[in-house]
């Protein structure tokens, strides 16, 4: 038996072949059909259940509005998109970190996909870094779990078999910058006039904390020892042209979106990103991702291992110590005070902006 399901989140259709007999592979099947499912929702539905609903009515696998991450794959070009979707700022909570890791693994499990674009559904913020509210008066149970989920995102992105391209539409401070630096290629939007320049960098010292060694080393490996040493100490947030000069990003796009939407992007982008089909950062990110996807994968992955395996091994070896340091540091009275002050300032700024 074969049936077709219209998905409310895209115009494409999911072919369901003899779904009743494919119980353990149902999530896979849907994923291969171009609809990477939201992990928790899919795992709570049995294949039999899905097949029954599919015969009766359009199947709502997940709503793009309440998914922390939205994804889509384009098998023809071997490119996928994974976009963070946690309003208002894509700040990294435990749940967002887990969603990024899970979705990346799902995309990796499709052998037809060779590249992924890491993007944001927010046109002005790539990611605001760690969700600072996770750091204030945290519970003993959640804090290490939270930090572990961030370490895991780094390991998954930095060590991915996929070529990873960061489409940085807007701000990317601290752990937001880490996400971008863990990718293979970074394209940043040049901003809309001098007053609205997005920035990228490790600004931790400005918050009274220091980037952990693996994050600091990521910057060192990206821009070199001396510039990284200075940027880390000062907590420098680079505007686009400075980020390009320093090598924090590989490309800066200054042109405005055209009125014509790009046909491949229409097929590639998840619904939450359909407004970005004429966005020059997305277009460039797709071109770059498609270019990587054409390289023989074994050779591409082997070359990535040459530059990344040592630091990944080191990360695995020091992971537990890193978690202990982080939890000890964050729960220190002085650090807590600094963080509270910082959040207070952030809220005041938000209020002032709204009034
Ligand atoms: C050896 C021992 C090692 C120990 C290591 C110890 C610690 C290391 C720690 C960690 C490394 C990583 C750290 C981090 O990532 S900390 C987070 C750093 N991020 C920031 O400082 C960014 C703060 N945000 C901003 O600057 C701005 O919001 C922005 C991103 C530039 C966007 O500006 P914009 O004007 O467009 O938006 P708003 O400012 O109005 O923000 C919208 C909305 O989002 C809320 N928000 C923003 N950022 C965060 C955040 N990081 N966490 C939680 N919430 C955030 C903001 O409050 C607004 O909310 P509102 O309710 O007012 O709408």
Automatic annotation (TrEMBL):
It is found in: Mitochondrion matrix. It holds the Pfam family ECH_1. This is Enoyl-CoA delta isomerase 1, mitochondrial. It catalyses: (3Z)-decenoyl-CoA = (2E)-decenoyl-CoA; (3Z)-dodecenoyl-CoA = (2E)-dodecenoyl-CoA; (3Z)-octenoyl-CoA = (2E)-octenoyl-CoA; (2E)-tetradecenoyl-CoA = (3Z)-tetradecenoyl-CoA. One of its GO terms (cellular component) is mitochondrial matrix. InterPro entries: ClpP/crotonase-like_dom_sf (IPR029045), Enoyl-CoA_hyd/isom_CS (IPR018376), Enoyl-CoA_hydra/iso (IPR001753). It comes from the Eukaryota. One of its GO terms (molecular function) is delta(3)-delta(2)-enoyl-CoA isomerase activity. Key enzyme of fatty acid beta-oxidation. Able to isomerize both 3-cis (3Z) and 3-trans (3E) double bonds into the 2-trans (2E) form in a range of enoyl-CoA species, with a preference for (3Z)-enoyl-CoAs over (3E)-enoyl-CoAs. The catalytic efficiency of this enzyme is not affected by the fatty acyl chain length. The keyword Oxidoreductase does not apply.
């Amino acid at each position: 038996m074969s049936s077709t399901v219209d998905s409310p989140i895209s115009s494409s259709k999911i072919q369901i072949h003899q779904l009743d007999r494919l119980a353990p592979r149902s999530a896979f099947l849907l994923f291969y059909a171009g609809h990477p499912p939201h992990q928790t929702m899919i795992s709570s539905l049995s294949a039999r259940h899905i097949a029954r609903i599919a015969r009766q009515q359009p199947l709502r696998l997940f709503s793009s509005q309440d998914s922390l991450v939205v994804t889509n794959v384009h098998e023809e070009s071997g490119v996928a998109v994974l976009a963070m979707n946690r309003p208002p700022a894509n700040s990294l909570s435990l749940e967002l970190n887990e969603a990024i890791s899970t979705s990346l693994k799902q995309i990796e499990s499709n052998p037809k996909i060779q590249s992924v674009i890491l993007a944001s559904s927010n046109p002005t913020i790539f990611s605001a870094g760690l969700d600072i509210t996770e750091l204030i008066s945290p519970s003993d149970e959640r804090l290490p779990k939270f930090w572990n989920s961030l370490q895991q995102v780094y390991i998954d992105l930095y060590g991915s078999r996929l070529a990873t391209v960061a489409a940085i539409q807007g701000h990317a401070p601290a752990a937001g910058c880490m996400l971008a630096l863990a990718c293979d290629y970074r394209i940043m939007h040049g901003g809309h006039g001098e007053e609205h320049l997005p920035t990228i960098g490790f600004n931790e010292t400005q918050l009274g904390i220091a980037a952990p060694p693996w994050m600091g080393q990521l910057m060192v490996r990206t821009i070199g020892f001396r510039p990284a040493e200075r940027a880390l100490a000062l907590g420098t947030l680079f505007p686009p042209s400075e980020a390009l000069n320093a090598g924090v990003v590989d490309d800066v796009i200054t042109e405005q979106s055209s009125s014509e939407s790009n046909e491949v992007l229409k097929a590639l982008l998840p619904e939450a990103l359909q407004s970005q089909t004429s966005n020059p950062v997305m277009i460039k990110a797709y071109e770059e991702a498609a270019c990587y996807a054409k390289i023989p994968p074994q050779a591409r992955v082997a070359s990535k291992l040459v530059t990344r395996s040592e630091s990944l091994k080191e990360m695995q070896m020091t992971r537990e110590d890193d978690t202990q340091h982080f939890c000890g540091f964050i729960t220190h009275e002085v650090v807590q005070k600094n963080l509270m002050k910082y959040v207070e300032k952030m809220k005041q700024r938000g209020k002032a902006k709204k009034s």
